[in-house]
Amino acid sequence: MTTNNQALVIKSPQSFNKESVPIHPEVKENNARVKVEFGGICGSDLSVYKGVISHARYPVVMGHELYGEVAEADKHHLFTKGQKVVVQPNIACGECDLCRKGKKNICRHKVSLGVTDNGGFSNYVDVPVTNLLVVPDDMDGKLAVLAEPLAVVVHAFRKISIEEGESVAVIGCGTEGMLSSILANLLGGEVNAVDINQEKLDMMKRFQDIHSGSPSILEEEYDHVIEAAGTPPSVEQAFDIVKPGGNVVIIGITDGDVHFPARKIVRSDATVFGSIIYDFPKDFQRAFDFLKNYPDMFTPIISKIYPFSDYEAAFETALSGRVGKVLLDFNEEE
Ligand SMILES: [Zn+2]
Ligand SMILES: [Zn+2]
Fold this sequence. Notes:
Bound molecules: zinc ion
Radius of gyration: 20 Å
Largest sheet: 7 strands, mixed
Distance between the termini: 14 Å
Number of domains: 2
CATH class of the largest domain: Alpha Beta
Shape: globular
CATH superfamily of the largest domain: Medium-chain alcohol dehydrogenases, catalytic domain
Order of helices and strands: EEEHEEEEHEEEHHEHEHEEHEHEHHEHE
């Protein structure tokens, strides 16, 4: 039985601490207890840190991109102790009109771990069994952490169909933009990825088949435009560069007003999609397929791994905006 559970608790924006958070001795019905091994710091963790998500709850245990091992099975033994799992961190109500239509990603009463309820930057986290997925054998845990952010891209790409040789522009080279660029490239697209940050562009140079540079390199029209920067100018650029008959898929979360060129979109018969999170487990399973088949493509996305005790440095690095994915490693002495 576990007695000591250290968790990263944020009390109010910019004020967080690693502290002891007791966990119930008994695992609730239909939950399993996961011993967390690796956690990925996501843009939404940074938004919770900065205090820019209006519906975020404080205090809350941070973190939602989680890989670990089942420490205590659920009562119905759907999972067994020792299994390696990842967590689907959005808990749908299952009852609203959208859930009943099978659209749990846009559930009206969705609870998001690490944002509106306690997440899993902690030694242990209890998770409903419906939100756990067993990791394929032999998959590196650090790579498995990417299943959640990659599932976001897998879901977005289901809206469109990238054919061999089609042109794809990806605006923004944060984690989601990098993952979008790699996936579009693997699907046969001719990818141009842009960012305003030179360090991120330097990272993109590892991917020889992906052309990268500053936003000004996007001079043509593209069959598919993926907006992953989440700023008004980048959304407007996406509308500007879509080819007649092409698609814009917006996955960046944009604050502020965007000028929507309705006339151009109508006259060019273009399609604009929004896409949020994923369908579980199918988008995670497809993400696992890509991670398993192309580990060398995805591993470079992980820029730095910090032990849990160095959470402040880890967040500082992630907040710099100059790196790919930053991971926390929970496999330290307790
Ligand atoms: Zn995330
Ligand atoms: Zn619902």
